[in-house]
Each structure stands twice: as C-alpha cells, then as structure tokens.
Amino acid sequence: ITASSADSNIIAGNSRFVALPWNGGGGPFLVHNLGAVGRFEPIPKTFQGHSAPVQDLDFCPFDDCVIASASEDTTVRVWDFSSKVTADNGIKLDSDVPESCSTSLTGHSKKVTLVRWHPVAKDVLLSVSYDATVRLWDVSK
C-alpha cells in the first residue's frame, strides 16, 4: 500500500469492490472483489495509467464498475472495468489494466488531491488540485 498525505479516500469501496493505491512505477492501484476468498496475489494485477502516485479514488454511485482516480501527475482518470467482470461478479484481470482502458481528464496544473462523483447527478465529477482550483467534469462527453 502507498502513503497519501491528503484528506482523501486512501481506500475506496462500494458493495462489490474495494480499491487502493499500490506501490510501483507511475501510480498503480488495484481493485479487489469483496466476494473473493483468500489473500491478494503476491504480485497483483493493477490499473496502470498515471505517471505519478494516485492520491484519491472514488467509485461511481451509478455504476459499480466505474472508478475515478486522482494523481500527482495533474490528471484525473475515469476507468470502466465492466468488461473485466465475470459472470459470477468476480473481477478477472489477466494482465495489468493499461491507460487505454481509461479516459484522461486534463486541466489542472498541479497534483490532484481529491476526486468525488456527484451523488445524484450522473456523469458529474469534481476534482480538487494544489493549483487552487476545483473543477467540475461532465464525463459523458
């Protein structure tokens, strides 16, 4: 597990999955099925897309298989991993999930420390950065 000094979700979860930043080059994080029994793999498959550590994670309240990540690399990424979910609601990753499986939201000039989905407005995402800005994103576009 990686360390984060921001007031953010170090661990994010919903009714099916838990996500947490992971140590490694760039800013990987992993998503684990809450229904899975046993330990994490010794070298788990991770979501790879940031070039610096992940500061915050937040699952979409409208889709259990969509998660947003905020990073020190000044970007926010929105990941849809529904194609990786098995029929028994498990998550199957044969390899690390590449950045091509995400949408990058750019606009901040310093590290992004917080990301939150709007609780009732679908596809609205908020991000907060050390550049002293708060951005609202329409991720449906």
What does this structure look like?
This protein is mostly beta strands and 141 residues long. It has a single domain (12-138), classed as Methylamine Dehydrogenase, Chain H. Helix content is 0%, strand content 35%. It has a four-stranded antiparallel beta sheet with strand order 4-5-6-7, with no helix packed on it. It starts with 11 loop residues before the first strand and ends with a strand. 33% of the residues are buried. WD repeats lie at residues 47-89, 105-141. One of its GO terms (cellular component) is cytoplasm. One of its GO terms (biological process) is actin filament organization. Residues 1-39 form the DUF1899 domain.
Extended strand count: 10
List segments where confidence is low: pLDDT < 50 over at least 5 consecutive residues: none
* β-sheet strand percentage: 35-45%
For the record, the CATH architecture stands as: 7 Propeller
CATH superfamily: YVTN repeat-like/Quinoprotein amine dehydrogenase
Alpha-beta content class: mainly beta
Cα-to-Cα separation, first versus last residue: 33 Å
The coarse silhouette is globular
Radius of gyration: 14 Å
- The helix count comes to 0
Task: State the CATH topology.
Answer: Methylamine Dehydrogenase, Chain H
Integer count of domains: 1
Task: Provide the CATH top-level class.
Answer: Mainly Beta
Which strand order do you get reading across the main beta sheet? 4-5-6-7
Run of helices and strands = EEEEEEEEEE
Helix content: under 10%
Give the overall pLDDT as a whole number.
87
